[in-house]
Write a structure and sequence with these properties.
Strand content: 5-15%
Shape: globular
CATH topology of the largest domain: Rossmann fold
Number of strands: 14
CATH architecture of the largest domain: 3-Layer(aba) Sandwich
Structural class: alpha/beta
Oligomer: single chain
CATH superfamily of the largest domain: NAD(P)-binding Rossmann-like Domain
CATH class of the largest domain: Alpha Beta
Distance between the termini: 57 Å
Number of helices: 16
Largest sheet: 6 strands, parallel
Strand order of the largest sheet: 3-2-1-4-5-6
Order of helices and strands: EHEHHEHEHEHEHEHEHHHHEHEHEEHEHE
């Protein structure tokens, strides 16, 4: 099938590459000429394992192209996927900014030729599909089209596997004709018996928010339990294992840490709260999860301060990991962006390393943060070492080498990567999350 993808950000680029790997003919469109030129040369603007190879393979195979010209992509397409950003509103009120969605709808409308399914791939509030349809009709009353909602469920760092072997595909449509087009697009997944949930656009839009909010609640819940464990002298890691082995609960997302971040959970929980307020209902559990997450990041600042003897002023802190999770260069709402500025404000010196995120981190962290090119360099003269993100290359560090370079032997493990006994036996004072 012939597909057009509007937007070459994270969702658009991964979707375009994977659809072309399915065998579809895909044209990705973006109004950023420099980005399109780079993509045509095989230069990928984001870090995602395996994405460069997949793009190059399908460009070489003639199934994937990039352009700035909508007229080249939209008229030929049986489905046009809108995959532009929906950031939180600049007003700071938590509402999703849908200006890019509506702009894309206005731009593609004049180019629709023949029956076309316009698909919202971006994460959008309930009712957006109806508004996209309204915009297209206003611009091109003669257009023959349907609007569908097809939310993505991609984990950064595992996006290609998530797309190629998803837990489910959710399709929100109003009629069988549009459903048939989406079924055809995802037909390669039928061989692995991927469940396809066909529902209304409103339900599909809400499924995405409900899924992310549930996972955010799960993270905040285990972080709250970790706080209780610290207070009573219990082991939060054993607690998480003990409840996670219950099949009704499951072990995923039960890892005490510095709080959730990234491009989805912070933005989507707030957008869901704004939506329910508009409809005059409540989502108190989600509200609590957001509050707990903010408090957890503040608790991590206090944990580091207490580990340093009550003050970070004049202290050098080595930081391992800056991105919100491993295998991505994404710094959006990363805990580091809350924790490190608070320490710097009180006079701490920060020396940091991240395998992929330092260039992005430099855009958001205060001036003066020193970035180094290997994990051991952060330890030179440090009063404390903070493990912020659980990259694999941090999981088997030479603790003796680390200690030999530090001024004071304080190890603060915000991801509980190391066993406390292992670190303490190497001569460190060890501080984890949820461990008394």
């Amino acid at each position: 099938m012939k597909l057009a993808i509007i937007g070459t950000g994270y969702v658009g680029l991964v979707s375009g590459a994977c659809f072309s790997e399915f065998g579809h003919e895909v044209i990705c469109v973006d109004n950023n000429g420099d980005k399109i030129a780079a993509l045509c040369q095989g230069q990928i603007p984001i870090y995602e394992p395996g994405l460069t190879e997949l793009v190059v393979k399908n460009v070489t195979g003639g199934r994937l192209r990039f352009t700035t010209n909508l007229a080249e992509a939209v008229p030929r397409a049986e489905a046009v996927f809108i995959a532009v950003g929906t950031p939180s509103s600049r007003r700071g009120d938590g509402y999703a900014d849908l200006s890019y969605i509506y702009s894309a709808a206005r731009d593609i409308a004049p180019h629709i030729s023949g029956y076309t399914v316009v698909v919202d791939k971006s994460t959008v509030p309930v009712g957006t599909a109806r508004q996209v349809a309204r915009v297209i009709r206003e611009v091109n009353p003669a257009a023959e089209f349907d609007v569908a909602s097809n939310p993505e469920f991609l984990r950064e760092g595992a996006a290609i596997n998530d797309f190629m072997r998803p837990d489910r595909v959710v399709v929100g449509v109003d009629n069988d004709r549009a459903a048939a087009v989406l079924r055809g697009i995802y037909s390669p997944l039928y061989l692995i018996e991927t469940p396809v949930v066909i529902t209304t656009p409103e339900t599909a839009e809400l499924i995405k928010y409900a899924a992310n909010a549930f996972l955010a609640v799960k993270i905040s819940y285990i972080n709250e339990m970790a706080t209780i464990c610290e207070a009573v002298g219990a082991d939060g890691i054993a607690l998480a294992k003990g409840i996670g082995l219950d099949g009704r609960i499951g072990k995923k997302f039960l890892h005490p840490g510095p709080g959730y971040g990234g491009s989805c959970f912070p933005k989507d929980t707030l957008a869901l709260l704004r939506t329910v307020q508009e409809y005059g209902v409540s989502a108190r559990i989600v509200e609590a999860a957001v509050e707990v997450n903010a408090a957890q990041k503040a608790r991590m600042v206090k944990k580091i301060r207490d580990a340093l003897g009550g003050s970070e002023t004049g202290k050098t802190i080595g930081v391992l990991g800056l991105t919100f999770k491993p295998e991505t260069d994404d710094m959006r709402d990363a805990p580091a962006l809350t924790i490190l500025p608070a320490l710097i404000e009180k006079g701490a010196r920060i020396v940091a390393h991240d395998p992929q995120g330092m260039r992005e981190a430099a855009k958001y962290l205060p001036e003066g943060v020193e970035f180094v090119d290997n994990p051991y360099a952060v330890c030179a003269g440090a009063d404390a070492l903070v493990l912020m993100t659980e990259w694999n290359q941090y999981r088997a560090l030479d603790l003796g080498r680390i200690k030999s370079g530090m001024r004071n032997s304080v190890f603060i493990d915000l991801r509980n990567v190391y066993a406390p006994e292992q670190v303490r036996s190497a001569g460190f004072s060890y501080f984890g999350v949820g461990r008394g």
